[in-house]
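Hey, resending since the last one bounced:
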Amino acid sequence: MSKVVPMSSLEDLYQTRLNFVLRFSRLIRTTRVYDPGNETIDRQLEECLHLVQTIWGHEKRLCLRILMDAIFVNEERVTGSKDTYPRIKRILEEMKERMIGEVVFSEGISRKDLKGFFYLFVDPPEGGADGARALADGLVKKGIYTITAKPFHPIFVDEGLRKDEAKKIYFRSIAMVKEICQNVLDNKPLALRKAKRLTQSVVDLFRQDSFALLGLSTVKNYDEYTYNHSVNVCIYSLAIGAKLGLSKKTLAELGLASLFHDVGKVKIPDAILRKPDKLNRVEWEIVKLHPMVGVEEIIEYHQFAEVHPRILFGIFDHHLSLDTSGYPSLKRKKKQTLFGKIVTIADVYDALTTPRCYRRGVYSPVDALKLMWKECGITLDPTLFKVFVNAIGAYPIGSLVELDNKEMGIVCENAQNPKHLDRPKVLTINPEGGNGLSINLSERDERTGGFKRSIVRCLDPKKYDIAVQERFL
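The structure tokens again:
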């Protein structure tokens, strides 16, 4: 293996994984155009080999895998952007067509091995043979033992079972937040290890099916706002973290930071938290202490070693604001950490879309995003906000919309194509009761080439007496 290039951050590692996927996609195309001896092929193979060796050197393994409609590199999903989406999609289509689910690259791989692999990959097996088996056999015949291919197994998950699992984890998370808050009141340890295990379950489920959890985030319980809010903020934070390509371990840490972000509010009297009128100066100063109190609660019970410092900074920073105009007030200004910026966005979005004691009216998901957009560059990080919109869609899950054929529907899945974030999947509402139809708004009319249906506007669920959250329970 060649010398490993040092990486300064998680983002560097994600970018390397993404670059590898994009290079893989380009080599699929160029090996169809050029002969094996062409200089273009050799140059691209050298670049690909460098990426393989870099990833292998840092993670001691390299596996390119497809799961449903997603690509993973070493268990981490690679999503890209609207510009790179077509190249990522090419790999999905090519591997599914050949029924190849996984390609594993081993230590000691050479440029010659890569060249042999790609020319075998683009040469389809005869007579509809098993593509993964044909590729694996071809590699062995060529004496290439540093690359192996495994078959693709389509996953069919019962939607009812999927929703049940999501609900179970969602409400267990709410129960966990309640337990943590009660422990704070009773001056007991916070059961962080138990919380870590549960957060890991949330991360695992989110990586498999983010739609189910994003749908449950539409549950807004006015009477138990702190508990529901904490879990919803966790879900939205994970949506951003997953889009950034954070590792499974880092996602779990982000989940803990977001789940605990308001634990300091337990020390604030209910009379202040539930006050319907504007807080006076003294009351507001008490509220502003809760990020620091939350960090102190974790440290006080000798549990500092149980958490990574970035978890504590995520809790401490979540009201600091991008321009540091928020709170806690610091004598020496510090920049918001990545976790703090992420939790801020998730916190603001859920707060705007949830009834509060001082504001019974709520913003629709779309109106909330519009309002937040105005704060980008001031209190919110504009880059991370764009990632957030990319993660939850221009019409977030749970939005009630009117289609151009006058039908109403509820957004049930995000748009998969980053170029068309305004074209999610919608569950139409049957006026006579019962289930409506699931419609993918990205589908086009074969005759005209135009989209079959489009969203005209967002609607207020209360005006039509529609309980959106019931569609996800």
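The first strand starts at residue 62 and ends at 67.

Sorry for the duplicate.
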